[in-house]
Amino acid sequence: MNAMNESLVCGIQIQHDNSGVGHNWRDIDASDIPANIREEIEGEIIDGNMETCEDFVASNGLHYRW
Asked: Rounded to two decimals, what is the model's pTM?
């Protein structure tokens, strides 16, 4: 995998909300997302046909979007 793709999940840039209330969205590298959460996001993208998502609350209680 080349360096450009290491930050993507299923070819999509993921953002994480550092504030917890939608005020501080930042790009996050796939390697910085816990493996179980990355699997949840991949499941939503692949199985749920969600190419975009404005606010996904993962099982760890943190907010992600793509």
From this structure: 0.85
